[in-house]
Amino acid sequence: MSLALPIKNQPTADRTVVRIVFVLAVIGIMAVYSALAFLAETKAGGDLNRLLLRHVTFVGGGLAAMLVLSRIDYKWTERFAKIGLIGSILLLVGVLITGVAAKGATRWIRFGTVGFQPSDFARFFLICYVSVLVARKQTYIKDFKRGFLPILAWIGVTVALIGSQNLSTALLLLATTLTICFIGQVSLPQLSLLVVGGLLLGGTMLMFSPARAARVENQLGMRIFSHTDSTQVFDDAGEGYQGRQAEIAFAMGGLGGVGPGKGIQRDFLPEAYNDFIYAIIGEEYGSVVAVVLLTMFLLLLYRGFRRIAFVARDPLGYFLAIGLTTTLVLYGFVHAGVNLGLFPVTGLPMPFVSFGGSSLVTSGAMVGVLLNVSRHRVQAAS
Amino acid sequence: MKKARRPLQRRALFVLACASVLYGALVARLVWLHVEKGPTLRTAGARQVSSFVTLPAMRGPIVDANGRVMVTAVPRYDVALDPSLPAFQEQAGVFYSRYANLTGTTAAAVRHKVESRSSPKYVVLGHGLDERQMETIRLWETKGLIVTTRYERRYTYGETMAHVLGHVGRDGHGLAGLEVQYDAYLQGHNGRRAAQRDRRGRLKALVGGRVVEPQHGNTVVLTLDLIRQTMLEEELARGVAETGGRWASALAMDPKTGAVLAMANLPTYDPNAAGRFDAFHQRNHAVTDQIEPGSTFKLVAAAAALEAGTVRMDEAIATGDGWGVFAGRTLRDAHALGTVSFEDVIAQSSNVGTARVATRTGKQALYRMARDLGFGEPTGVDLPGEASGRLRSLNRWSSQSVASVAIGYEVAATPLQVLAAYCALANGGLLVTPHVVAEVRDVTGRVVYSPGRDSVRRAFSQATARTLRPAFERVVAAGTGQNAQIEGLDVAGKTGTARRSDRGGYVGGYRSSFVGFFPADNPQVALLVVVDGPTSSIYGGQVSAPIFQRIATRWLTTLPDVAERIHPVHPLPAPRVAPMPRVHAMPVQLAMERLRARGVAVSPDAVEGISGPHRPVQQQSPVAGAAVRPGTPVRLVAATATPSRMPDLVGLSARQARYWLATLGVDVRMDGAGVVRAQSPRAGTPLPERATLTAR
Question: Is the pTM of this model over 0.90?
């Protein structure tokens, strides 16, 4: 029909994506409930119900953010993503300075009792802004100076700032923006610059952190760095400990799981409610549910790419859908990979599942934008 | 638009494909974790949550020969506190004053201890509280108390038998004496109760969990007797108080079995607080010190000469004016004796005479006899740290060595080795293995260990022993050891006076010893006393013999059959009628013991035929089962051959039975102690290689 009509003809957002988010959130609440039991026991004055309420509240907050953003035309990103990103960068610098002043790494900014990670802001806005830039520069994207270099600069600054505090988040953000650029027709030789930059960042971080390097060495099963603490590497009680405990959780769970609340590995896994929630699900609800969870993310990926991005009304929608889908799924897969012992141990939340307000709200916002893109699609008949 | 999107979609599809591969890898990893590593991981997971609470085993007691508890384990409690608990803080004031009352301090002191603690949640209040104190504390139901149970060693009689018993360290394992020698038997095995453990190591009780009960330690039964030991220790202490000296040892053995009857050293220590005493106090000189024996070693020279046939006891030996030169070395006697019999050479302890005979005997025979009597190697006593003594091999002997060794120089021996050699003289030539443990029993009373063979080897013949013994009786009767005389009792012995040596050099002063046994004709006790560096006199006959005499005199009260010989009591009228036991095929002496044990009076001249205690009875009269009245003549006819059948040993003392079977060449396994109640094989069966006796 007419090209002006699709917006009004297809006002509903993608229901499948909404259902996926609900499934993830429900499984998450169940798993966090049992994983939190340990936290509530050990933290003085910790009250299980209060903590669970907190989690449910943040899930609600994430869904609210999703709902709100799905109603706002994603064109706001053209104007506000840059401002949001600059604000995030300032926050990151602020955290860095206060962190130095307090003589310790900090990733948090607190507003009363609610803490927020500026890196989550930065993550969201960088993906939006890179999408905006790639969409805007499509005609001359192969021109390094006009096309790729400005994008590269924004990515470099943000990733470096985050990376100084949190390597894994920085690397995943780098991978996401890399994907946007890759799909956005940036020439491959130029893209490889980004890859080299990522490797440089990772290498530098490992040189400065023996514990982190030890984790990587343990994952690879070989010694690479001379400065690592050799007693920690390959030791079940040292760096290999967490990974091994997570593997034990899956093995103990079997296909059907040991049952809700009956798991014991939550006592052995650090931050089980957050960094190792997937292992807890594997133990208590079994590998079938674990695979279902993974499949949810795969489904989200296909939905986000084929049913939202590929039919988006303009390049901006296309790249936003690609970027947001990629980052959500990448977090899900890498979290699962860490839990399964496929990647070095690092603390990444599983979107919508893990305990933690910052991550939940950010993920909600991302899906919100994604849903809004899905509202504006070209005619399916085309 | 659409055209432009084609390549975009191509790269997007490539990303999609990559992500799908990652998904596949994750699922594959999950499957691999289950199938390939599943069993290992599950085992590891199950293991890390299961833990155990140790149930401590009680260390076994040590009892003396008559069952008196010498060492026992008593429960002790260590009390610590977590004062940060709100429930405790509510009752803190009351607790402080109660606890202070109980332990004899002030409430302020307890409060100070708690408040000045270094750890926020833990402070040790007291160590080693006893059962009664703990009962009281339990009644208070104080929150936050952390009580640890352990067993502490209690030496019932303090310093008594200290060097034999030894002591334990803080970890409850033996550090000295029997505590270390028999540690494996005493310690038992800790039990455990299953519990669940989480990452912080906190234990959660596991209802219905597996419980392994602790296996308490075994009971070690000594050959030593508390009463005799106490007498010996008292007399040794009294003697040393009179004579002075750096250290002294006294030890006694049953010459037939090698069982140590008593062993003491001065200075001594209290094993209940071993840490307060230095190594010198804790030293068991009787087995760890190798000293030059001096004249007591003349036994070796005499036995070697008799075995070699180079001297007769009544042979006249010229000792001249009390000095003689041997290969350039001049030896002197205490007094000039002139020409005397060899018996008097021993009795008067003539160095010149002994050296003269030894030179004639030759160094090979002398060396071999010293070896055979166990010098130069550990006796094998079941006490830790035994020294082997020093007996140089023949190729390192100088031309003077024969004379020196003959009078107990150039050799070193532990007091126990010297005593073992005199046991051989007392028992007819057999070297026995000294031992202080009669047996080890588990908690049910089953014997789990008993010492093996009694004798090591025959050092010299019975004839030699018989010939030599009067010379040593003469030492006491009319020689250097007259201070050891006991009225009415024949005592055999030898004095020894040697210069004190330490690591090859003489350090000034003397060591005075006396070693002997009694009754001389049927020795039951061999006893040695040695005093290092006495000040009242240097001579063994002056210093050690009186101590020997006093110990022996007091011990007589514990040896009724010996005491009876000195002061015969009129026997109760024999039972009017006793059935004649069957003694056929028994060794004669055993048969006579048996008859006496059953109330049948029998005199030594009732035996006909070739005499000898080992000959079996061929005929008896009256026949077995017949009534024997006082006055009924009893007659035994001995066979000409040695016995070839197992004798009936039931009713004999374990010691006698063991001895008799040993003389027949039968190994004995003795269960229990006291009187033989059962035997295997039965009486009358051909002599076995090994027999088992059960005694009670």
Answer: no
Planar angle of CA A295, A297, A302, nearest 5 degrees: 95
Nearest to B512 by CA among B486, B547, B477: B547
Rounded to whole angstroms, how far apart are CA atoms B73 and B95?
A: 30
Q: How far is B198 from chain A (nearest CA, A)?
A: 6
Contact between chains at B2 and A382 (C-beta distance less than 8 A)? yes
Crossing angle of helices A240-253 and B38-49, rounded to 10° = 100
Structure tokens at B547: 């101590």
Cβ within 8 Å, pair B49-A252? no
- Rounded to whole angstroms, the Cα distance separating B526 from B215 reads 39
Where does the pLDDT of residue A101 fall: very low under 50, low under 70, confident under 90, or very high at 90 and above? Answer: low
User: What is the average per-residue pLDDT within B277-292?
Assistant: 92
Q: How confident is the model at residue A217 (pLDDT cuts 50, 70, 90)?
A: low
Other beta carbons less than 10 A from residue A101's beta carbon: 9
pLDDT in tens, A264-283: 777 677 666 777 888 888 88
CB B496 within 8 A of CB B513: yes
Q: Which residues make Cβ contacts (< 8 Å) with residue A129, sequence separation at least 6?
A: A77, A81, A82, A84, A85, A154
Chain B CA closest to residue A292: B27
| In chain A, beta strands by DSSP E | 109-111, 114-116
The ipTM is 0.86
Distance from B8 to chain A by nearest Cα, in Å? 5
Contact assignment for B49 to A322 by CB distance below 8 Å: no
- Across the range B48-76, mean pLDDT stands at 84
Q: Taking CB atoms and an 8 Å limit, are A250 and B34 in contact across chains? A: yes
Task: Kindly calculate the radius of gyration of chain B based on its CA atoms and give it in whole angstroms.
Answer: 36
Which residues lie closer than 8 Å to A35 by C-beta, 6 or more apart?
A266, A272, A273, A276, A277, A280, A355
Best mutation target among B2, B30, B47 (most A Cβ atoms within 10 Å) is B30
Which residues of chain A does B4 touch, with a Cβ-Cβ cutoff of 8 Å? 138
> Above pLDDT 70, what percent of chain B?
92
Q: Quick one: closest CA in B to A337, which residue?
A: B26
Of A322, A340, A382, nearest to B26 by CB-CB distance is A340
Contacts of A301 in chain B (CB under 8 A): 16, 19-20
**Contact assignment for B37 to A247 by CB distance below 8 Å:** yes
